[in-house]
Structure formats: C-alpha cells, structure tokens
Amino acid sequence: MRVPVNNYNPDFNITRASHAVWSVKDLDASEAFYTQVLGFVVTAREADTLYLRGLEETCHHSLALVKRDGAPTCDRIGLRVYTEDDLDKARAYFLKAGLPNAFVEVPHQGRTLQASDPLGTALEFCATMPAVERKLTQFHTYLGGCAQRFDHYQVLLPDLEAAGEFYTDIGFRLSEYMVDATEKLMALFVQRKGNPHDIAIMYGRGPRIHHVAYTTVDVHTLIRACDVAGSLGYGRSVERGPQRHGPGHALFVYFRDPDGHRVELFNTHYLTLDIENAPARWDPSNIHRNLPWGLPAQRSWYEEATAFTGVDLRDTPVKPNPMTLERYLFERS
Amino acid sequence: MRVPVNNYNPDFNITRASHAVWSVKDLDASEAFYTQVLGFVVTAREADTLYLRGLEETCHHSLALVKRDGAPTCDRIGLRVYTEDDLDKARAYFLKAGLPNAFVEVPHQGRTLQASDPLGTALEFCATMPAVERKLTQFHTYLGGCAQRFDHYQVLLPDLEAAGEFYTDIGFRLSEYMVDATEKLMALFVQRKGNPHDIAIMYGRGPRIHHVAYTTVDVHTLIRACDVAGSLGYGRSVERGPQRHGPGHALFVYFRDPDGHRVELFNTHYLTLDIENAPARWDPSNIHRNLPWGLPAQRSWYEEATAFTGVDLRDTPVKPNPMTLERYLFERS
Amino acid sequence: MRVPVNNYNPDFNITRASHAVWSVKDLDASEAFYTQVLGFVVTAREADTLYLRGLEETCHHSLALVKRDGAPTCDRIGLRVYTEDDLDKARAYFLKAGLPNAFVEVPHQGRTLQASDPLGTALEFCATMPAVERKLTQFHTYLGGCAQRFDHYQVLLPDLEAAGEFYTDIGFRLSEYMVDATEKLMALFVQRKGNPHDIAIMYGRGPRIHHVAYTTVDVHTLIRACDVAGSLGYGRSVERGPQRHGPGHALFVYFRDPDGHRVELFNTHYLTLDIENAPARWDPSNIHRNLPWGLPAQRSWYEEATAFTGVDLRDTPVKPNPMTLERYLFERS
Amino acid sequence: MRVPVNNYNPDFNITRASHAVWSVKDLDASEAFYTQVLGFVVTAREADTLYLRGLEETCHHSLALVKRDGAPTCDRIGLRVYTEDDLDKARAYFLKAGLPNAFVEVPHQGRTLQASDPLGTALEFCATMPAVERKLTQFHTYLGGCAQRFDHYQVLLPDLEAAGEFYTDIGFRLSEYMVDATEKLMALFVQRKGNPHDIAIMYGRGPRIHHVAYTTVDVHTLIRACDVAGSLGYGRSVERGPQRHGPGHALFVYFRDPDGHRVELFNTHYLTLDIENAPARWDPSNIHRNLPWGLPAQRSWYEEATAFTGVDLRDTPVKPNPMTLERYLFERS
Questions:
Q1: Distance CA B181, CA A100 (A)
Q2: CATH 3.40.50.920 fits domain B14-332
Q3: 129-148 in chain D: CB under 8 A from chain A
Q4: Strand pairing report for B122-126 and B74-81
Q5: Residues of B with CB below 8 A from C273's CB?
Q6: Model pTM greater than 0.90?
Q7: CB-based contacts of C68: which residues, under 8 Å, 6+ apart?
Q8: ipTM reported for the complex surpasses 0.90
C-alpha cells in the first residue's frame, strides 16, 4: 500500500468538483423527481437536455440530464479550475501525462477541456459558466430536499494506488482514507475546496460513478426530502439513511432517481484548510467507527453504480466483501 | 372481524397511559443509557429501583427500573385515572367483570389498583403521584434524546377482538386500526388523551410489551439521540429508524436498552378530540402506505418483546407474516 | 385577588378552543398571506367567506375570514363541546346564568350555540363540523409556516376575577397565572385539552382578541414562516419573535395579517392532565422569568388587538404598564 | 467611491480568518459562558489565558482569552497563511508597504508575524498551530450553542476605500458590499476560504472589532444557545436575533460575553469560489432587503465594539446614521 502524498504545488488550480452529465430515459419523470423530491432548480430545458442547479448555485448547471435510451450512463463528471489560464495548464499537464484530452465546445459552459484519468474516468474541466440567479433567499420556492449545491461525487475505481497518485498529483489533498486488514487501500477522500471531499474514491469495479452529493439546509430538509418522496410515491427511492457517516461525519440520505442514478443529500461537514490537518485513517472492518449507529447499507448501495458512457469496466483484482445489510443480518441470525 | 365500537360513557375516567415498571440486570448500566442516550431525568435511585421521568413530567416517575436477575420482564404498565373516585369506580368495574384486581401500596404513587385485562396484561391504575419539578425549561440539562414524556405503549396480544372489546369498554377510543386481506384485525390504536394513541395493540404472541414511547422535542433531538448513542458506544442499540410511521404519522427511532427493552422516541402526532373524527383503517400489506419511505424493520422488531412478570404467553392462532426487512430483501433479490 | 378555583364537574363538556371568525378587507390578499406565509389549507372559498384549516385538521374550518369593509373585527371565537347533548346542557347553563345565548344556523358547522361570557366576549359552541381530509401526510403541500392546528386564543379582558370565575365554572382548568406586585391578577391560562391553554386571558381594555395560535412542526418551520414572509415581501408582518415564552414555555413568532389580526405560530408545549398538576404562578415584573432571553415585545404587541363585532369596549380600572420594548430601551439608556 | 478590485495573484496565500485574542476580567466567568452557553471546547487553561476552540476545530485555539483588568480590549485578530513560505512573503509585503510588522513568539502557535493594516488593526499571521482532537463526533459533549469553528470577524474602520485597497491587495476577494445613497462605501465583505466572508468591514469609528462569528450546526442549536443562555441566567446576553441577514443570508444570533465582547453564532452560508461570481451590491437604506424580517438591531449593536489594545481610535468623517431599533420605533410611532 502507498498512501498518496499531497502535492502542494500542482501544475494547475482546480477549485472544486462542480457538475455531472447523466443520461435519462424520460425528461419529464426526471424533472418531476429532481425538482419536487430533491428540490433542484431548473435553469433550462432544451431539446434533449435538462439543466439543473441547486438553490444556492449561480452556475448555469451542476447536473445536466440528457435524454437517451438504453442503459443509463454518465457522460462526464465536471471540475472547475480557477482561471482560463489554469485550463491551458491543465491541457499541458494531460498532454505531458499522455492521457486523453481535448478542448471541446459544451453549451452553457466556458471553454471546456475533456480528459480522462488513468483509470478511464471521463472528466471535464472549465473555468466558467454563465452566471444565473442565486435562489438562496427565495425561500418560498424551496421544495422537498432543498438541494443547495453540488459538493462532491464518489467514483468506484479498481486501482486506488494509481488513482491516489493521479489525483494528488493534480493537487487534490487527502483528507481521509481507508485501509483494510491486509493493508490494502479501500477508499480515498480527496479535496480542493477545504471540506472533507470533492471526490470520494472507493475500491471497486470501475470506473463507475456511485453518486453525486448535494448539500441540504439541515436535518429537517433531509427528512423533508424523504417525507415528500413518500407522499409523492417515491418512497422506495430512499435507498439508505437518514444515517451518519463515519468518514466525513455527514448526516445523509441516498436516493435513486427514476433511472437508478444515485444522489446523496447531506449536511454538516468540517473545514480542512490548515497545513497541519493530517489525513484521517479508517479501518473499514470496524462497523462501530464506520457506521456510528443503525444498520449497514443494503447490497445495492455497494454494488450498483453508473458506468461512464462508452468506457470499459475493469474488475478489481480482489473482490471487496463489504459489511452489507444482508450479510449483517445473516451473520447475526 | 369486529371493529371495536367506542363507548363514550365509560364507568370510570382514564386520562392517559402513564408509566411502566421493568426489570434490569444492572442499574448503573441502565442509568447511563437512559440518562445520557435518551435524556431521562433521575427522580430517585433507591435500593433496587431507579425512578426515571421525562423532561416535562411532574409525576414522580414514568419508568421504574427494578434490579432483578433472570430474563428481563415487565412488572406492570400504568394508567392514570382522573380522581380517587375514578379509582373506586375502576375497582367496581373489574370486580363486576370478574377480572383480577387489588388495591396495593406502591412507593411514590397514590392509591394504586392493580388489575389484568382479559389477555393477562398486568395493568395498574392510580390517580396521583407526588409532584416533582418540571425540567422543561432547564435547557442546560437536556441530554441526548431529550425524552420529554411518556406518551404511549405498545403491547402484543393474541386476540384483538377481545382486546378491542375490553379497551373500548373502559373508555378508550379507536383512532386507527389495521385489517389484513383476510379481514383479520392486526392492530388497534386506542387513546384517551386526544392524540392517536395511549395504547397500540398489535396482533401477536402475548401478552408482551413491545415498547414504551416517549415524545422528543423535534427531529434534531431524535437524531441527537442516535448520534450520542453512536459516540458513547451504543450505536447498535438503534434498532429501527429514523423513519416515518404510516399509522400515526410520527417520525420515530426505536432503541433497545441494555436489557433489550425497547423504547421509542418520536415527535409529531395529531390531535383527535372531535366526535366526528372517524378511526382510520389501514391495510398492513400496503408497504407504500404503512412505510412511507425507506426499508421495513428487521425481524427482531417484529418478534422480540418483553414478557410480563409471571404471566404465561399465548400464541396467536395464525402466525403473523409481517413484511420484515429480511423478507423484503429476500423477495426482491 | 381571587385565584380561580377549578370546577372538576362542570355542567357540560368543552373539549377545546376550535375556531375564530374574522373580517378582512380583501379575500385575495388574505388567502395569499394565510396559505403561502403561514401554510394554511383552503377548505372552501365562497361568496364572501374564506374557510381555512391547519394541515392536521379534519374539521371544515378553524379560521373563517369574512369579507367586510370598515375596521377589522372578530365576529366569534369558537369552542367545541363533546356531544350534541353537551350543547343542550350548555344552553341550559347560559340560560340559568342569565347570559346572552341562542341557537343559530352557521354554514359548515353542526348545531351552533352562540353566547357571551360576562365580559361580552362573543363565543360560539358546536359539537361537530363536516370532516375533511387530514393533510398531515401530504408533505409536498406543506408551505411556509406549516400551520398545523388551532391550539388556543388570547383575549384581553378588563376584569380577570370575573373572567376566572366564569371560565373555571364552565370547566376550564387553570394551568398558569400572573399576579403583579399589588396582588392583582394580570393573566390566566386556562385549558380543557390537556396542554397549558385553550384560552389565555390577559388583563386589558376589552373584550378584544389578541391572537389565535396555531401549532407548527418545529423550530425549522417557525423560521421558515419568517423567511418566506421575508422573501414574499411580508417581512414587517413578523411582529415579535422568534422567542421563548416564560409562561407556557413555547417557542413562538407573532405575525400580523394584512388586516392587522394577529396569529401566533408556536411549537413545544407540555401535557397537563394529572390532578396533582398545580397552577404555576408568575410575577409579570420579573423579566428574567417571563422573557427568558432577548428583548421585550414592542408596544403594538401589548396595545393592539381586534375588537369583537358590535361589542363595546371597557377600560381597565388601572392601566397596565407592561415592560414594552420602548420602555426597556428607554430605561436602559 | 471606489469599489475594491480583486487581486487574483497576491504576494502570499492567506487561507482564512482564524483566531482572536481578547482580554477578560474573570477567566472563570468567561469559561462558564463560553463553554456552557456557546458550546466552546477548552483546549487549555494556563496562568492567565484560556484557550478555546470550536467543536470541529483541530487548531489549538481560535479564541484566546487573557485575564487583564481595565477596559476589555482585543490584542490581535489572527489569519492563517498556507505555508511557512507564505509567512516570509507576507513579511516582505509588509516591509515593502511600510506597515508595522514583526516576527514574534506566541505560545501554541507556529512562527507568527504580527502586523497592522493601514487603519491600525492589529493582525497576526501564522501557518500552523499544534493539532488537537477534532471533537465533531463526540456528540455527547455538545453543549449549548455548539460553536463549531471560527468563520469570520467584523471590524469597524473609518476609511473603507483604504481598507478595501489593502485587503484586496493581499488577496481577499470581494463578495458583497454596501453603498449608501451618497455613493459612500458602508460595508465590505471579503473572503479567502470560499464562503461570503472571512472579514466583514463596516464603516465606523475604529479600528474596533465588532464581533467574531462561529458556525453552529443548525437553527436548533442556535435556539438552544438562546434557551441555555436563558436557563443559566444569561438571557440578556442575547443582544440580537434569531434573525436572518440580508447580506450573506445567514441565520444568526449575537451574544455579548461577560465582558461585552460580541460573538455571533450563525449557520447557512453559500459557496463563492467560481471566477464569475460577481460581488453583490446592497443598499443599506433598504430595510426590506437588509433585514428580510423582524426589527432592526438596537443601538448598542451598531455603536458598541471592542477597541484594539493600545490602538488609537479615529472617528469617521461623517457619522453613520443606521436604522436602529430605537430610531425605527420612534419614526414609526
């Protein structure tokens, strides 16, 4: 095992994880779910694309849903760099690293660099988006889960040493990580914006995107998301939670959207900006630390995730054996 | 099936469900759990008994824990009548009904009538207890789940027709009930104090007490109970929830105390005082109505309960087959 | 001073304070305010009357707004009795007491007895209303302050000895009261439904209705009411709070509706059902007990209230001198 | 008026506002207030100094209280730079700018550079502090207001053009600002860590520190701080709130500590990291925008603040005339 080493002088300045592009089968169904249950704001709905953002976001979109038949996939996951100059430096970095990259035109985004990480994760970087109204104080428009802003996303990758090396090299800082009893890296939480994670990287068949996570106001809006899901007939879309994470410490609920994409709403994280903040190490087999209370997640939460469009999946050398709800109930009985 | 018929002119005036007496193995362990995790107030700790109450209660105790080895049992469940006169009328009622009854001396309670319902449930009635300080505004003493007051209890009884007849006869009013596809009564929620239930009566091997339920301030203190349980090492005592009930509509968490007795914390119920409020009928097989969101309870929640001290258990003629978490996961896979 | 003495065997059975009828100048303006800011549900809007109820109420209305020009007044304040039989007994009581009373037809209410208390307060009693849907679990319809149910009302009356005698005689039970340094009664909190008050009676020029009070879910919906008031341009309608009452202990906010009628939203009260619960005595000059934190209310809160339609006002023999915000700031500077 | 212009390439990298040093008369009184009412954690108490931090902070202290008689003052306000190298660059900057500066030894801090801004504000910069335990998940230790972390501070300065020029030059980014009807700058909110402010700079006699602001969990802990203040006898220390800011949008409460120093608890702010996020301009005379609901602050909130130890105060050329509560009540009556 090699714990990633932070690079405090990266070649370019990423500021945060910022957006995702997902395919969905039915834009109406998705719009109803995302606006009414999760509380997203619609910035625009065009021919085949629904552009969504959170209540506090001024960026044009943090979630773009593209109508497409077939198995739902993720086209891209987006990251912000600070300036246009950083975009050019990013381009130079990917060229030097021999990783796929290209500048492309993307509607409602500034100049956009699409690239892949060494595991094949489809990334895109931009410095700007058109600015739209911050709805934060339009309290009468708050619905359901009151999704506020894109905070982070989680990917499943089959090689965490390679992933750790890449993401720290481009400036991500390790906040927490998990190492199992065989000294194998099982999870990396890396960040740019000063809270515990912009990207949560889990060991698993991939690259796949496990979920995107939006902040919500507080525990009340978290419960409200569940209650509205229930009263609108989406009660079984509440896959996991409300519960408290060990790593990251957030109170969370995971929802599955009508196509099965997973969205986490959560609140409460901590600031980690100071140079002396050391990464926290977790033991995934310690249920009491990883799952402070309640039951483990059901198997679907561990096994199901969204593949990237056109990207082949790779299995992990060793199959992870998480403490699923099914296993927990079986072993206890 | 016979749906119980309300009796608006009962022989005596019960005001509310009020207290329970449970045996525990270790008073220190119980005191730590009840005060720190659930937020109970200790009124007194005597030789073998710990007297607890909620933050808003002025009664001497709503939970009495008696140190005793052996399988944990429930000695009595308590109900309040309005006046001493009602006690005498209650006595006359039980005599006439041919049900076991006796006036006894119970420490820290007014004159107490102990009696059994037709299924053998060990009840006791009193009109008064010594009044102690209401701690409601001593906010600096609020701990963990901030248990506020004894609201109701749930029993498992093997004959709901008999139970319904008895409890409505002594004045309980039916607020909600469940009838399965075979037109069998599966649950009765009956009340005296004007919210949905003082007693929840479920069909099952019994008489057993399934849980006592205390109100808490709001969703925040509900989560705080879980979080404190986690940080003090009681994380697995969170047996079910946070989740929303269908019947009753409360947001709840169920805890198992160190002896396995079950305590529910919940908030949010409704007022049901007006004569035109008709009982609500539920279909227990409709998961979408009974469990607005999230997963069913694990098997232990359905099967485990506390027997009454020295009272024989009777099986139900037909074994209930609830939608347990195990069954749900199995059927879905 | 005579502290009222509870009468545990009243002539008829009042169950709760239940509704009010107010005149307003503009039904559209009122509907917008009550539904969007306070979260009321519209049961019906007829020619000149808007019928509103709270989210958990099954009664047809708890607030009826009647369009009428001129100074806004209160036509009636409503109380529920348990059965039709109680209505007849109430009639007999008022006849015997020589107080004005008459059975009248009121739309969307059962048989209704209108009567006056000895100070001229316009009351009406009914046993039933048509039952409508309880919206409690329609979480997607929750708006603004999520008003849940009519809990109590406050009147200003110029003779608290007379008021106390009357209201305890008809069965109200004293839960809390205020006595000033001259041993003069300044406030009476009386109840039927088991929480601290169905009626709060304050010493003052009257009879006038100071406010009706609705429960809300929790502190979050209390703040949400304020926030929505702000974002919809009703920010100055927040007259007082959020703050914590001394007497009653509720967390509250007072709003002024477009006609100046006052509505309190609050949560958190306590149960007071047991015979040994003694009335709590308060000293109104003790700001630290009556106002646990923050500043006193502005003068308008003490001085402004809604007169009853066609009922003459009587001054108090001695003008109350409450600790208003203005006085507090002046004395402190 | 000159609106400050952001400098995206500052000479050194400040990461956040981080700590303050205040004199107090009685360390016991301060410890009781800060721990029980506001929920601070004591890291250490030495001879004359109490070191406090918030529940989520790993830094040794974010508030140092020094016992000293005489008028309470502020010794220093602290800012973090990212690395030791940034400290040297900061030193070079202050030397070049001709502003007072010196490296000094400060207990429990890394190498510390003390310096003054052009208005005389006593600043200090360091890159590290000894790391201590993050108490975030020790939920059973949460008290009162659950202060979580130092977020920002507010100063009163008599020249906002000069202040704006200095703070943007050292890399602070303008998020919001106020301009009055005479086109005079009245307030600047500048930030480094990506939320609306690390420093709020108000026009006024100064330099003085108006308050330090700590995040709290949510509205419930905000109210809990008030309630505990009330039940422990500090009810009048609640100077302002709970209320919602216009600028910054936070829900807040202001407390005065036993020496009169002001501490704000607040939750809910927004992320502002993207290059296209333009500063928001506010009109201070618009009460509806600046104070979405409720009443203005009392005069003390506008006029009282803590001077810096040994630093002379300068009046503003024109006396600000804010909409105080006193003025609002007077003009309305």
A1: 60
A2: no
A3: 129-131, 134, 136-137, 148
A4: parallel
A5: 15-16, 80, 193
A6: yes
A7: C23, C24, C25, C48
A8: yes
